[in-house]
Write a structure and sequence with these properties.
The structure holds two protein chains of two kinds. Chain A is mostly helical. Helices cover 76% and strands 0% of the residues of chain A. Chain A contains eight helices and no strands. In chain A, helix 4 (74-107) crosses helix 7 (156-163), helix 5 (118-136) packs across helix 8 (167-188) and helix 7 (156-163) packs across helix 8 (167-188). By secondary structure, chain B is mostly helical. Among the domains of chain B are: 8-54, no CATH class; 81-117; 121-153. Chain B contains seven helices and no strands. Chain B has helices at 8-18, 24-36, 38-50, 62-93, 97-115, 126-133, 135-167. In chain B, helix 1 packs parallel to helix 3. Chain B is elongated, with a radius of gyration of 51 Å. The chains are: A mainly alpha, B mainly alpha. Chain A binds chain B through residues 22, 25-26, 29-30, 33-34, 37-38, 41-42, 45, 47, 50-51, 55, 58-59, 62-63, 120, 123-124, 127-128, 131-132, 135, 149-151, 155-156, 171-172, 174-175, 178-179, 181-183, 185-186, 189, and chain B through 1-3, 11-12, 15-16, 19, 21, 46-47, 50-51, 53-60, 64-65, 68-69, 71-73, 75-76, 79-80, 83.
Chain lengths: 189, 168
């Protein structure tokens, strides 16, 4: 590579990484690590889990990079890996703790967070806890669509690409998620 | 919190409108509807108020991001190391030993099949062995059976033969 990796676009970095230049992939990590972490955090609400999930997504992307045909952007392809990991995480968690979560939501205790720092607690506050609890009650796909739209600012067509669904389906998921959240928050208030 | 409800036909479009994801035709339709509908205007105001507040706030310290990058480099190195180990195993197996071993196995099997095969294998069952050793006896028995059969047939034919000249 003649120019510095940081100056290259995603496509050029992907090509370089596919040819074995690890530094190119590390540049992609630097470019997307915060976004990846934030989407993982939206799903997990736990700093350690979010870090592990987002790092796992990068590793999976790295291991499958040779098979990436660049028909979609790296960003969309990577988000697909990450969101699938997050959905799997939610499914695993839901199996373990759905009942206890329901009880806590009903009591208004908020989403269980194993070990938030005092700073986090202060920042979030009670309203944020309620929102977390309300988000946790959404079905996984509705939640994913909502987070990608509301938190990540992806367009409907980008979300459709990430979730491999029709745009109409994404619109329905988003609509239902917003209405359900609104309803939940009204009930908690 | 008293909820505001939108007209059912416009609810989904209002959500998309809030996010700026309406196609131009729908955007125009929503805007002209909003001009005359208090309920939908109230619904939209509610979306504007509560949706931004749902954003998760987590700003890890700079040290977190430094650790993140360092950990990622270690994980990538570990992954590459594992992959290169597997590749070296595969590379060792790929060029010649596997085809050579396969060819050797085929030759060994064919040689075994060729030289282990005896021209006339003796019957293994003792009963068959006994019958084989007394083949002549059994052949004579068959002959005796045939003679007996001929003898039983012959008198009938003789009777028929005798009768015919008399009839003539």
């Amino acid at each position: 590579m003649s120019s510095r990796p940081e100056e290259l676009g995603d496509d050029a970095l992907v090509v370089a990484a596919q040819q074995g230049e690890r530094q190119a992939f590390e540049t992609l990590i630097e470019r997307y690590k915060e976004k990846a972490y934030r989407i993982a955090f939206d799903f997990t609400r736990d700093r350690e889990e979010a870090r592990d999930l987002s790092q796992e997504a990068f590793l999976q992307a790295f291991s499958h990079l040779k098979g990436f045909d660049r028909r979609s952007s790296f960003y969309t392809w990577f988000y697909r890996i990450l969101v699938n990991l997050c959905l799997d995480y939610r499914r695993r968690k839901a199996k373990v703790s759905w009942e206890s979560l329901e009880e806590r939501v009903e009591k208004g205790d908020g989403f269980p967070n194993p070990g938030p720092s005092p700073v986090d607690e202060a920042i979030r506050g009670q309203i944020s806890e309620r929102i977390s609890a309300a988000l946790a009650t959404l079905p996984p796909k509705q939640r994913a669509v909502f987070l990608l739209k509301n938190h990540q600012g992806l367009s409907i067509s980008e979300i459709a690409g990430v979730m491999k669904s029709a745009e109409g389906t994404i619109k329905v998921h988003l609509h239902r998620a917003v209405i359900a959240l609104k309803q939940r928050l009204a009930e908690m208030a | 919190m008293a909820q505001k409800y939108a007209c059912k036909d416009f609810e989904q479009d209002l959500v998309l409108y809030h996010y700026g994801d309406c196609v131009p035709a729908d955007k125009q339709r929503v805007e002209s509807h909003l001009e005359g509908c208090d309920a939908c205007r109230g619904f939209l105001q509610e979306l504007k108020a509560f949706l931004p507040s749902t954003l998760a706030v987590d700003e890890p310290p700079p040290a977190f991001w430094q650790d993140y990058s360092r950990e990622m480099r270690i994980k990538l190195s570990d992954y590459e190391e594992n992959r290169s180990w597997w590749r070296s195993v595969a590379a060792y197996l790929r060029p010649w030993p596997v085809p050579a071993l396969a060819a050797g196995a085929i030759i060994a099997i064919s040689l075994t099949m060729t030289f282990n095969k005896s021209p006339e294998a003796p019957p293994r069952d003792p009963e068959y062995a006994y019958m084989a050793s007394n083949a002549d006896f059994f052949k004579s028995m068959d002959l005796l059976d045939s003679i007996g059969l001929l003898e039983s047939v012959e008198p009938q034919e003789t009777q028929k033969g005798e009768a015919s000249p008399q009839n003539l």
